[in-house]
Every structure is written in structure tokens, then in C-alpha cells.
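Run log, item B.
One chain of 418 residues. Sequence copied directly from the ordering sheet:
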Amino acid sequence: MRKVVLATGIGHFVEWFDFGLYGTLAAMIGMQFFHAESQAVALLSSFAVFGAGFIMRPLGGLCFGSRGDRVGRKKVLVTVILLTSGATFVMGLLPTYSQLGVSATVLLVITRLVQGFAAGGESAGATTFLAEYAPSRRRGYFTSWIDNFGFMAFVAGSGLVFLLTAGLGEQAMNAWGWRIPFLLAGPLGLVGLYLRKHLEDTPEFLATVKNGLAEASPVRTAMVHSRGALLFCVGFVVIKAVGHWTLQTFIPNYLTSEMPHSTLDAYAITTIGLFVIAVIVPVMGALSDRVGRKPLMLAGCVGFILFTGPAMMLMARGDMFSAVLAMLILGLCIAAVDGASNAAMAELFPTRIRVGGMAIAYNVTVAVCGGITPWFSAWLMSMTGNPFSPAWVVMGAAFVTFLTVLCARETAGQRLPR
């Protein structure tokens, strides 16, 4: 089980290190690839391309979800890491707008779309892989490591950008230093690929194939016969999508554009906050095995509803301590949701359609709610003139998930549906 967690987790780390870098460097990328009159317009344009990557996630989910249930979870995980690392490496080599004009912007969009397509198979595939290996009474704990590695990837990306900015200076970072994290995707991808290629597929999947129960069209079967499971999965993911990309992408740029924090401080605040979340998630996962999935997810949603507004007001005070405290408050909320929700989603679907069902529900929700969150939050501020208006987005998402969890049945400790 340790080998499975390590190999799956490191691959997941590489995947989200690659995918999340764009969000962390959105402000710098905006000034490099868009001909804009102001930093705000460039940031909006960069967030729009960030969201474009999410448009491709349902298509990736359709392709890789079906493939994962037909030919194996392992093959999907190997393919997606190849695609994502390759696209990210290419992004680090792209000419800028000043060098190639609008063609540079087009190339940036294409690489982002490839990243999004590949990401469509990652979360569902990796979660399913761990869920099917894990013992029933510890499934919450083991599947929560997916989010631990995901957040550690964001920590590594944010921390690397922080160190590069501190070492090179903002001028050099804006000029060429931003390319370095993207170029690291090449060697990191090879490490993740090696580990995933040496894994055996899950016993659950192999038994399904051996018994002749594999579905020819798993996604179609899920949409026809498991609509309730799909809807519950969508509801679980709403706050995950909005919460994750608010903390990882919107907040670092928000701290510099709307709040009185320097670029260096913003990266430090984000890095500390995401690290603490990564540490707490497995604790929450283990707790969900003891007290159930529903109490943890409900507590996280209530926390977002009550404390998102006050947390953003804390950030506005302008000092590091208050901003880090705000990140930790929001981090506890997302950790509670993440610690329970991965197992809860896997427990909704039978083995023969598990990857396909999760991939479609997860990626459609992330595309609609997660990809648009940074852009919509920035747009909402520009329309209302209220720097705290993004809190409404997070609170609304938390309310939707809260209602969904209330209606769901408890699945902790039960065997996976066959």
C-alpha cells in the first residue's frame, strides 16, 4: 500500500505541479503573452487562458474515463503524465508577445488546452487507483493522500517561484526567470512516468476483466444507470473546485493586485498556507474513516460559509501574520472537505464504471466552477468595486455542496460497489 501511495502520489504531484504553475505565475504570464494597457487587463486575459485549460477537462474525462474502465487505470495514469509534462515543458520554451505577436498567445492557449485535456484523466484515475487498493476501513485516509500530494505540488510551485523571485529579483523573474519552473516539468515528468509504469493495475479492475464484467461504454452506462451518483459527485466537487483554485490561483494574485502585499510576500503567504493544508488533509482523511464522510464535509462547508468573508478582511490588514492566518482558516475548511470527499466519490460508483463516472462528474464541475473562479472573482471585483466580493463565490459554492452532502447517504467503512 505504501508503494501504491508513493507511486500514485508522486505522479499526481508532477501532474499538478505542471498544471498549477500557470495559475501561480498568471500575473507574469499576462504581461508576457498579452498586449494589454494595464496589469489588470493582462491579468484578466491570463485568467481567461487559465480557464480555457478547464474547458478541455470534460473531453479529457470522457476519453480517459472510458479508457480507464475499459483497458485499465494504470495506462491512463501513464498517458496523462506524458501529455501534461510535455505541454508544460513546451510552455517554458514559447516566444513571448513582444517576440512573435499574437501567434505567441495562440501557442500559449494550445499548450494550456493540452494540459487541460490530460488533467481530465488524472484525478479520477488516481483516486480510483488508491480507493481500489485501500482496505475499506482506511479508504478515507489513503485516498486523502491524493490531495496531500496535489497541495504539496502547489507548495513546490509557489515555493519555487518565491525562491526564484527572491534570488533573481522581480525584474529578472519577469524577463526570463518565469521559464525555469516550466522547464523543470521535463525531468519531473520522467520520474513520475517511471514510477507509474512499474505499478500493477488494481485487483478490483483485474477481477472485473477476468469475470467478463468490463463495460464497452462505461461513460454511457454511468449517464444512463447512475444519474443519482453522478449528481451527488457533482455536488461534492463544487466547493472542491472553487476552494482549490481560489486558494492556489486567485489568492496569490489578489494579494498583490488588491491587497497591500508585495509579490514576494504573496508567494510566501501562499506557500505557507498550502503547506499546512497538505499536512492536515491526511489527518482529515483518517478522521473521516472514524466519524464518517458527511460530518467532515458538512463542517468544511459551514466553515467556508461563516469565515470566507472575515478571512479576506484579515488579508486586507496588510501584515504577513494576518494574511497567513486567513489562509490557514480557509485551509482548514478545504482540508476537511478534501479529506472525506475523495473516498466518498469513489464509493458512489461500481468498479466497471468508476473511473468514467467520476471523470465526467468531476471534470464537468471543475470546468464550470473551478476554471472560471479566478476570472469571475476578478471580474466581480471590477464590476462591484468591492475587494471582498470574491467571498460570495466561495460561500455560494459551499452552500451547494452543503445541501448535496445533507441528502447523501453515509458510505464510510463499506465495501466498494461491485
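Observations after the first pass:
- Residues 305 and 327 are 15 Å apart (CA to CA).
- Residues 227-257 form the longest helix (31 residues).
Flagged for discussion on Thursday.
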